[in-house]
Amino acid sequence: MVLSRDEAEVKEKFFPKLARVMSRVPFAEDLLAAYYCAFDSATPVRARGVLIGALAYFILPIDLMPDIALGLGFTDDLAVLLAAFKVVTTHVTPAHRARARMALDRLRAGERVAA
After folding, report:
1. What is the DSSP letter of 89?
2. DSSP track, 17-85
3. Do residues 29 and 97 make contact, with C-beta atoms less than 8 angstroms apart?
4. pLDDT tens readout for residues 5-47
5. b/e per residue 46-58 (b: at least 16 CB within 10 A)
6. Each residue's pLDDT tens digit, 55-67
7. For the whole model, what pTM was predicted?
C-alpha cells in the first residue's frame, strides 16, 4: 500500500531533513504540526493521507524547485503544505501545534527529536 510506504519513509526521514534545513524553512512549525496531526490516530484516514503526501513531498530529494535554490528552494514545499492544510485545517489541533512548538524548541537547542 502506497500510504504505508510513504508513512514509513516520512517517519524515517522527516526529522533528519528538518534538522538539516530548519534555519532555511520559515514554516518549520507548520511542518511539525502537520507531522503530529498525520500520525495522530484520531486524525481521519483521508486527512492523514493528505498530510503524509505533503510531508513526503518535503522529504523528497528532488522536487519542482530544488531545496538548494537560494531564496526559492522551499517555496514549492510551502505551497504543497498550504494546499494540504486547506483540505485538513480542522484536523490540525492546538495540541498538534503545541507539540510542534516544543519539538521545534528542542531542535533549535540541538536536541534530537524522536519520530
Report:
1. G
2. HHHHHGGG-TTHHHHHHHHHHHT-TTS-HHHHHHHHHHHHHHH-SS-SS-TTSTTTTTHHHHHHHHHHH
3. yes
4. 789 889 998 899 888 888 878 888 988 999 999 999 999 999 9
5. ebbbbbbbbbbbb
6. 888 887 665 445 4
7. 0.81
